[in-house]
């Protein structure tokens, strides 16, 4: 079994960054000061399948916007933390609340604020479009770019390692 699958076997919590991971990283601002983001439906369904398999999910984002809260609610993501650059501190608190260890966490990020978490968790991955330094220090890198299916790939990796992917896909046959 390859090392990524081995690391993913015991994951109980999958954590996602937003900008550059669940989106392509572009920020769109309208004349009235509001902003919008585009999300990939493949990523969203991957997150839903992962949750249905029993893995908890969380978002920890350095930026704060109502768009992300709406997306998290639409997907049923249980834990949302926005406006937090101190992602490792946030994760410490969440793990204490959930009674989990770092080895039971998978994290998908793209930039330097994600690196302390990527290096600490059991499975720390970067998207293909991530900063080169971050990619170099991650356990693995997705083939897909952020906002273009990377989260789906990450979710399916975890499910494959835990033996739940085939059943989740077969439900659509």
Tell me the strand order in the biggest sheet: 5-4-1-6-7-8
The CATH topology turns out to be Rossmann fold
Overall CATH architecture: 3-Layer(aba) Sandwich
Structural class: alpha/beta
In whole angstroms, the N-to-C terminal distance is 27 Å
Proportion of residues in helical segments: 40-55%
Shape: globular
**Beta-strand content:** 15-25%
**Major sheet, described briefly?**
6 strands, parallel
Helices, by number, come to 8
Which regions are unreliable across 5 or more consecutive residues at pLDDT < 50? Answer: none
CATH superfamily caption? HAD superfamily/HAD-like
Give the total of domains: 1
Tell me, rounded to a whole number, the average pLDDT: 96
> What is the β-strand count?
8
N-to-C SSE series? HEEEHEHEHEHEHEHH
What would you say this structure looks like, in words?
The chain has about 170 residues and is of the alpha/beta class. The chain has one domain (about 5-170): Rossmann fold (3-Layer(aba) Sandwich), CATH 3.40.50.1000. Helices cover about 40% and strands about 15% of the residues. It is built from eight helices and eight strands. A six-stranded parallel beta sheet has the order 5-4-1-6-7-8, sandwiched between helices. The longest helix is centred in the last third of the chain and has 13 residues, at about 150-160. The radius of gyration is 15 Å and the shape is globular.
């Amino acid at each position: 079994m390859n090392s990524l699958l081995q690391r993913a076997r015991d994951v109980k919590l999958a954590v996602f960054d937003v900008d550059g991971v669940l989106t392509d990283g572009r920020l769109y601002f309208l004349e009235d000061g509001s902003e919008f983001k585009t999300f990939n439906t493949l990523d969203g369904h991957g997150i839903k399948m992962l949750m249905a398999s029993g893995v908890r999910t969380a978002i920890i984002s350095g930026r704060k916007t109502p768009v992300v809260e709406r997306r998290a609610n639409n997907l049923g993501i249980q834990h949302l933390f926005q406006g937090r650059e101190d992602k490792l501190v946030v994760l410490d608190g969440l793990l204490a609340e959930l009674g989990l260890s770092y080895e039971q966490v998978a994290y998908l990020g793209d930039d330097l604020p994600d690196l302390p978490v990527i290096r600490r968790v059991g499975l720390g991955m970067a998207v293909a479009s991530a900063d080169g330094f971050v990619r170099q220090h991650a356990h693995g890198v997705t083939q897909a770019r952020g906002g273009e299916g990377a989260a789906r790939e990450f979710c399916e990796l975890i499910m494959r390692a835990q033996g739940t992917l085939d059943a989740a896909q077969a439900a659509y046959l």
